[in-house]
Amino acid sequence: TPKMLVQLAKCIAFLPYRDELWLASTDTIEVYHLSDYTQIKALSHSLGVISALAVNEAGDVVAGTVSGEVAVWNSAAYEILHVLDRSCTAEVTALVAAEGIVIAGVSDGGMVQW
Predict the structure, then answer these.
(1) What's the confidence (pLDDT) of residue 16?
(2) Is 90 exceeded by the pLDDT of residue 77?
(3) Hey, what's the torsion of the CAs at 27, 102, 21, 47, to 10 degrees?
(4) What is the mean pLDDT of the chain?
(5) pTM for this one?
(6) What percent of the chain has pLDDT over 90?
(7) In 3-state terms, what secondary structure has residue 8?
(8) CA 15, 42, 53: angle at the middle one, nearest 5?
(9) Side-by-side strand order, sheet with 79-83
(10) Rounded Cα gap, residues 73 and 3, in angstroms
């Protein structure tokens, strides 16, 4: 059920124009249809535990991790475009992605911009 999916997720990103819901758990990102909650894909990765997700205007999904890594996923191809340089020194707790800029809020109180 939708409620169970959300409870299992550490963080969530919505792509309504693609009818997608991205849920990050421990070591996977699961992609579901928003309309009926059927799974589209489970994306494995080696980034570690995802702690924040954001979507930019191009539809790319930006993921931040507990270890401070930030990666950009091409949501159409379901693959990582690139991992941003490791500027975060603590867990990424919030992300904003727009107009070619990514800003990460970090658990040590800092902010990093790419």
Answers:
(1) 80
(2) yes
(3) -10
(4) 86
(5) 0.84
(6) 46
(7) helix
(8) 45
(9) 50-55, 61-65, 70-74, 79-83
(10) 25
